[in-house]
Write a structure and sequence with these properties.
Shape: elongated
Order of helices and strands: HEEEEHEEEEH
Helix content: 25-40%
Radius of gyration: 23 Å
CATH class: Alpha Beta
CATH architecture: 2-Layer Sandwich
Number of helices: 3
Distance between the termini: 52 Å
Structural class: alpha/beta
Number of domains: 1
CATH superfamily: Lipoprotein like domain
CATH topology: Double Stranded RNA Binding Domain
């Protein structure tokens, strides 16, 4: 008799849990990301270069970095246009600024700052849409040329930018 009561209780509890789960709008998480369960695809448009100083290949590198984070951190299919979730934008600034001025009026460090303007669209929840500027930087020794440092600095800054964008879009950041 005790076993029968326990079985009915578990069956009822499981039934209520399943009913609650199916009646709610659900999302799934992967690495802390909250993505609508209805979403199956993501599109990342080519980020154009509106900055005079960015190297010609920067737009392609940044666009690929955005595609990479979406592909590696979600189970969404990457489509060229019209995804359930979408990113588009442009590189708005790419500049080098002197830092740590030394007594001889020369900079001891330089800072490369990259800014991108991003528009995110969530087809299922317009409240999650945003259009925001993201900016990140990395410092390098002023005795070294920017051209010699870009192969190291650009991937570092791209990683930081794409993580910020991903977190804003998928982690309610």
């Amino acid at each position: 008799m005790n076993i029968n009561w326990t079985g009915k209780f578990l069956a009822t509890a499981l039934g209520l849990l399943l009913a609650a789960a199916y009646s709610c709008k659900m999302s799934y998480t992967l690495n802390g990301a909250s993505i609508p369960i209805e979403a199956k695809t993501v599109s990342v448009q080519y980020f154009t270069n509106n900055s005079a100083l960015a190297p010609p290949t920067f737009s392609q590198q940044f666009t690929e970095a955005m595609k990479d984070i979406c592909g590696s951190q979600t189970k969404l299919g990457l489509v060229s246009r019209g995804g359930d979730l979408g990113f588009e934008g442009y590189v708005s600034d790419y500049k080098v600024s002197p830092l740590a001025i030394q007594p001889n009026d020369l900079a001891g460090l330089n800072r490369l700052t990259i800014t991108v303007q991003v528009k995110y669209t969530n087809r299922f929840d317009e409240k999650k849409n945003f259009e925001t500027s993201f900016s990140r930087y990395a410092d390098f020794n002023s005795s070294l040329s920017l051209v010699s440092q870009e192969p190291t600095l650009i991937p570092l800054i791209n990683k930081q930018l794409t993580e910020d964008i991903f977190n804003k879009a998928f982690s309610n950041w």
